Amino acid sequence: EDPQSPEHTADAFRLYGLNLQHKHVPEIQCHSGLSHRPIFVPSVARFRQGMIVQVPLQLWSLPTRPKPAEVHAALADHYRGQRFVSVAPLEEAAGLGRLEPEFLNGTNDMRIFVFADPSAEQAVVCAVLDNLGKGASGAAVQNLNIMLGYDAASGLEGKLAA
Hints:
The chain is an alpha+beta fold. The protein has helices spanning 25-32, 68-79, 90-94, 136-147, and strands spanning 13-15, 43-45, 51-58, 85-87, 110-117, 122-129. A hairpin with a 4-residue loop joins strand 5 and strand 6 (122-129).
């Protein structure tokens, strides 16, 4: 936002990490269990909070060649019962024409979507979150709650102050 900053941009939207060497790629690979590095190209836009993170998958290149429904089921099973993370049904994702990065602003929630073209054996896993709520500040509050023996959600449920 600061026009004097070397990182300043007047662009409404831009991609970065185009050398495919983003600092989060190793952790994505580690936590996803992928044997090959995923393609990850983050973006920023001109709004104060909210974000979409996406990871494209060439399903045909994965060892078991999973179907989109299997990718969805793995995510839904992993996050089942989580208070702040939900996985949208495949039907909901298929019915969306666009994804709005700000729709979870003011919450500590994250919503995961699996968009797919089964005939091409391709999928994109997208997560929408408020990077100020679900991001570092929300994680700090949640971790502090856990460390102090409080309910992990204390102060994080409902609509947060914007």
